[in-house]
Structure formats: structure tokens, C-alpha cells
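Task: sequence in, structure out. Protein: Cytochrome c domain-containing protein.
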Amino acid sequence: MRPTSLPLAVGLALVVALFGALSWGAPLTSAQKRELSEITDDVGKVRSLLSRKKVEEAEQALKDAEERLQKLVSDAQLMDDDRQLLAIRRQFELQRSALAKATGGKAGGAPAVSFAKDVAPILAGKCGNCHDADRASGGLRLESYATLEVGGRSGPLLVPGNPNASLLMQRLASPNPMARMPRNGQPLSQDELRTIAAWIAAGAPFDGTEKTVSLSLLTVNPDLAKEKVVIEKATGNEKVSFVRDIAPTFVNTCGGCHNDAQRRGGLSLATFEKVMVGGESGRVITPGKPEESRLWRLVNADDTPVMPQGNMTGITRKFLADLRTWITEGAKFDGSDAKRPLRDLIPSEADLVAEKLAKLTPEQWVEKRRTDSKELWRRTFPQGAEPQIVETPEFLVLGDVSARRLEQVGDWGQEHIAALRTMFNVKDEPLFKGKLAIFVFKDRFGYEEFNSSVHRRQVPREVLGHSDVTTAQDQAFAAVEDIGDEASPTSPGLQLNVIEHVTGAFLKRDGGGLPDWLTRGTGLAIAAGKSGGANPYIGELRGLAAEALRKSNIANPADVFNDGQFSPADVGPIGYVLVDFLLKHGGPGPFGQLVRRFQAGDNAASAIRTAYRTDPRQLATAFAAAVGSAPARSKKKN
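Result:
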């Protein structure tokens, strides 16, 4: 219960807190100095009174000193750094401690203050808006007693047994509106300040067993603090997984009304720990007993109000069955940290896809590739005929060209895959899960329709093919326009076109963020090697790259290694010349390491430094010089 009158030991600490943070004032007059000296003498008499067991007289002496000091500080507007104020503050602290010891920490027989019943409602009501999980102003969170103990960027809030030294009291009781908390709000009442000061003076005890219970819940149901939250770890033998089967619905269906910002009924489902803490009505989960679990009864419509209110679309029969089984099995936790947000624990869409794909057999993978590839074709030509299909050990080749042409593409692909295995020392069988699909379009219209339907994009005429391989390989294909076999300055011929984009798909199969210039350039460089330098299309690439560099707006030469610096039409020539330069500059060893660093997730600068042991800017400058045109620099602003 809250104290109805201010105990002396607490009262003096409150005076110190009230006036210790003053940041203005004038020099003391002679009369004020005499008054301060007399107050100091009176405070010094307290220890003598206590030594003679005159506790009541000691309390009265401190009370009188408190009233006189309060008037003096108010009249003089003493500053926080006034040495005479600092000295008497220390005297008050010493005598208050002595009085607290003499009375067992309860001066004047003051009733004990309960954190759960008395302090938590004040902090939740006055401080919660600025110091919750979302805002945490000053790095301070006042969600629970546990976070109160931690403090914020300014340090610990509490000095148990010493209110005037506690930052919490100094901020709450400051007479300076610029320093007082809550900022821009009504100051705490004298009764509220007395309550908090008395609690700190008593040692800032927590009258419960579960320090993580939110202050807002304690405000409604103080008894929650006494109920220990037990979190039992899953053994792995359970039929239902909390993380996989329960948490997604909690987050996506229930989380809108039961999160840290909006605790409907005092219940937050933001973390597993908060799920088990419960809400205003108490615990909502009783492990092993679904019929005694309020959450189950509300979701299952056994109690009212039925949850979730107004929208039951996210509550499936499977979820209801899983929820009941999970509670029956003991409501166990199979996550890494019960305090971690559930949103961070639940599998992402990509995780769920990967988990599903991991269960496929090689035969099922191939069937999936056939089905998915036909679906992409139908999406491109919804009114058209089914594609011709030819399969090889590594490829599913399909298109609207002749079966003989598809077989030719498959043979080129198989021959090139063998070279890639040797070049990169890859022994995986097969190279792609479910094979790599190669779409072959007889004309420009088909290739552009595919890009428009599948990728929602337009492509410049200079782009004759591309590849797309996801990390999980649930999608893995190359798409090329059949540009005929005769090469020209604007066309490499179909064989080199296939080689370029099969190489790109090969490089993407291990994931990572490979830049377009690397995948396109590597494919073209390998294709150039196969042509023996006689292909007129390859011969034009160096001049096109030089022109692309001249018209670029790259300010820092090292940016040439970053993805997205060049248009789709320019990235092929730039990539070819850049890969050719890197291979000649360091050989296949550093280049292979560069590819691996990109696949591991390194950014361009880090990958270059690791693979070539040089500064990216220096390497880029050497590249520009080799091409014959340095990247244009942005003009400095005046």
C-alpha cells in the first residue's frame, strides 16, 4: 500500500531529489547562509539522538530540517553545483541511512510499499508512452521490473536504499521543467513521488518471482508478479512445433491486436515469454491442459468473446488441431530465445519453400521442372500451342523451334557443362536440381513476350538472352532468342548465345549476389575462347565497352565493380572486357576466389580486396587505362 504521510528518511531523500537538479539560482544572502548553517547543525544532531534511542525525536528533527531546507531552496533557487547544497545533501544521506537502520528500513513504522501494486501503476501510466519497446527514449525501456533494473544510456536508474542518489528520483522530482520527467507532461504528484522514494529507500524490492511481467499487466493484476513463468524446451519428439505450426498464426492473425504497442486485454503475443505471461485475466496457457487454457477456449469459441474478433480466416482447422496438440504436449518451446520476437523466429516464405524442396527426390525435382517450365510457357503464350521439349542429362530444352534445333541446343549445353565442370572443378551430379530449363524462342516477339509475362519488364534489342536461378533452385532457367548460326557485329550466333547464358546460370546456382557484369562477362569470355577470336560480335565488345565507360557517370572508378552501374545493353560489353582484364591481371586463381567471395555475400570492394589483394580504386583505374578510356568524373559543385 502507498504511504499516506512522508516518512522522515524518505522525505529527506525526496527533498534532495526535488532540489538537487536545479540549474539556476543566485548567491545566498548572509541570512540564507546562516539558515543553511543552522539546518546543517540540526541534521548533525540526529545521530546523537539515535545513539540515545530517541528515534521519534530524531525523526522530528529531520522533519523540521526538511521543511526549513525546502523553504530555503525555494527562496534562494539554489543551483545544482552549489557546494553548500552538496555538503548538506551528503549530511542528509548519512543521517537518513542511520535512521533507516535504526527503524529496520521503515521509518516511523511506515507501511511497506509494493512494487506491483503501488509503483508499477505510476511508472506504466506516466512513463510507458516514451519508454516502451518501440520508442525507448534515451535507450531506456520501462516495460517491466527487469528492464527497470537495466537502466538506459545515462546509466542505472536505481541505487537501492538511496533515493536521492537514484537517477529515477532525480529525473522525476526535478523542479526544472527541462530536466523533469515525464517530458512535456504533468509532473508526478507529491503522493506519487513519496511512494517511489519510499520504495527505493526500502531497497527497491520486487515483491514477486517473475520480473519480466509487463508493468501494464501488473497495474491490472499485481498477482501476476508472483506467478513464475516456466518455459519448457521441446525435446524434438513433439508432434507439433511451436515455431513452425503455432507462431505464424500468432504473428499474422493475432498479432495485429496483441502486440507490444496494442495489448488487447493486456495480452502481447510478441514473444514466447509474453505468450506464457498472459494478460489482464492471468495466464492464457496452462501447459498440458487445453480446456483450462483461456487462449484455447477463446479461439475454439468455448468462451466469449471469440477470438480473433471479426475475422476468423486465419484460424484454420489445422491450426486449431495443432494448437490443442501443442498445449496438450506441454506448450513447449522449440525456438532459440523465448525473449526474441516471434516474427524473427517464424520461417520466411523462402525458408518454407526450401524446407519443402529439401524433401523432393531427384525424380520429383525433374517432374517439378517440367511442370513449372510448361506453366511459364503457357503464361507467355496463353492461346498458343504447347512447346516442343527435348531432354538431356543436364537440360530440359523447350521452345517453338524444331525438335532438331532443340537437340542441337541441348548438345551445345552438354558440351559446355563438361567444360565448366573442368574449369571450376565441380563434381556435383546433377549440376542443377531437376535440370536447367532452356527456353528457345524462334523470334524476337517470343523472347520479348517471355520477359513481359514472366519478369514484367521490357528488354532492349541488344539483349538476346538471360538466365534466372534462385538460391533454392526452385526456379532455374536460361532463355534465348534463336538468332541463327551466322555471327555478325550485332549477333553472336545461337551457340555463343547459349554458352553465355548457361554460364550465367551455372554461376548463379550457388546463390550469393553476383553482379550482372560478372555473370554476363564470364559467359562471353568463355564463349570468346570457344570462337577462337573469329566471332565478329566478340570483336565489337571492346569498343562498345569503351563507349559505355565514356558516357557513364561514375565518379569513383571503383564503382565499376558494383552492380547496377550500367544499362542492360551495356552490361554485356563491360562485363566481357572487365572479366577478360581480371583473368589476364591475376589468372584463374584470383578470379575464381572473386566469384566465391561474391557467392559468399561479400560486397564488391571486400571481394576485390580479398581476391586481388589490392585497392579496388587502383584496380579499376588500371582497367580503365587498359580499355583506353578512364571513367568520367562528376564535376565538383561550386
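The chain has 25 helices and five strands.
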